[in-house]
Amino acid sequence: MTSQTNYKRILLKLSGEALAGPSGYNIDPAILEQYSKEIKEVVDMGVQVAIVIGGGNIFRGVSGERSGIDRVQGDYMGMLATVINAMAIQSSLEKHGMYTRVMSAIKMEQVCEPYVRRRAVRHLEKGRVVIFGAGTGSPYFTTDSTASLRAIEIEADVVLKGTKVNGVYTADPMKDPTATRYTTISFDDVYEKKLNVMDLTAFTLCQENDLPIIVFNMNETGSLLRIVKGDTDTGTLIS
Ligand code: UDP
Q: 227 in a domain, yes or no?
């Protein structure tokens, strides 16, 4: 661990949608490039980085259901979509000189390693960025739940949820111009005020295991590094 940070190991959750850039679909090379640079700054500090990436830019189980695809089938399609995103990030991180492993909750040995907790921890200890693909491997879950679960399993110090908004607000800042941002808030307050941080399964997992969450804007240059360095005015800390 470096003296510049309190974090030894972080789990970074990125949504698939964010990876798509303004179009909302597919993978935007400019976003990949930006994310890789931001992640490298943190890796270079000696922080161990694990990543969970969503699949919403390619496929979501629920939307599949609306188009006539069975929910469970759609969820598996969504999980496979996360592997595509994980591979894209892997490739980009390696281009920027980082060592990486993709570990999938659904076995696909020609493409990536199967998820084995002890191996994931070993990779992290060796300084490799570990990207968890295929969600939890089970339908009816989300990649937010995957982020909470994997973070607990690998004993990460914090879940950093990168979004398009720079924290948790009193109301939706896109709709309500008077909304203000919390710099810190308790799990109980988030729950009581029904603030939208993560789905309840993901949120409860963190709460029950005393795992703090920081919500921040991953598209704001330098914010990931600032958070890792302990800047309490970037994002919202939920603990
Ligand atoms: N999914 C799933 N189980 C998991 C994780 C994901 O079934 O453990 C499926 C689910 O259909 C979800 C899709 O994968 O809609 C993509 O994940 P998510 O919607 O969480 O991606 P994001 O919104 O972060 O882009």
A: yes
